[in-house]
Input
Amino acid sequence: MKGLSRLKIFILNNKCLIVMLCIMILLSSCLSGIVAYSVSNQNGITIVLDAGHGGRDGGSVGANGTIEKEINLEYTLALKEKLVSAGYRVVLTRTGDDGLYSPTASNKKMSDMKARFEIIKEANPNLVISIHMNSFSDSSAHGATTYYRDGDDSGQQCANLIQASLNTYCNAPTETSKVGDYYILNCSYYTAVLIECGFISNPEEEAKLNDDSYKDTFVDAVFSGILLYFGNRLT
Output
């Protein structure tokens, strides 16, 4: 009994220490394994969300100064919230501004892309979605486009559903998705879709993409396409 009393006294006198230890253990478990954000899934489906570019690689710069890597992450995080609320397990290839390349890598772009592949491989996802913004010399170019890997029938199906949703809710001018020769699509055999959300080289579309209301509408459209994709595969 004396031992138990001493334990109670220790706990009472060291509550702050115990709380701090619990927090440290929790943080350690969150940071181990995949270097990305992840939640336990309720519906058995894992989705990797890839915010394009990061770190030294800022991507394209908009007509009015929008940095692609930053707005890519904004859209990715907004989509993550939608998917998590619907019970999906979500893994992010990056959660902040930093790139994924090794500091000592001679080819940092390739180092970054290989790190993304490793995250995808470890996550073993049902779907990969990569978020980007487009840019073109002709400032009148506009609209969202979805891409899939050549020969990836599931990717084409998902891309078509997302594109159709974007056509309906965001007035995207492209009626169907396209084959895309991108590393993030080609690096694995997982079903993958790359979304060019719009042209930040177009001043009007750049402003629209930076508008919170439009971002919500866009993310809702992508979310709806994803729901349709998994609904179709389960029926």
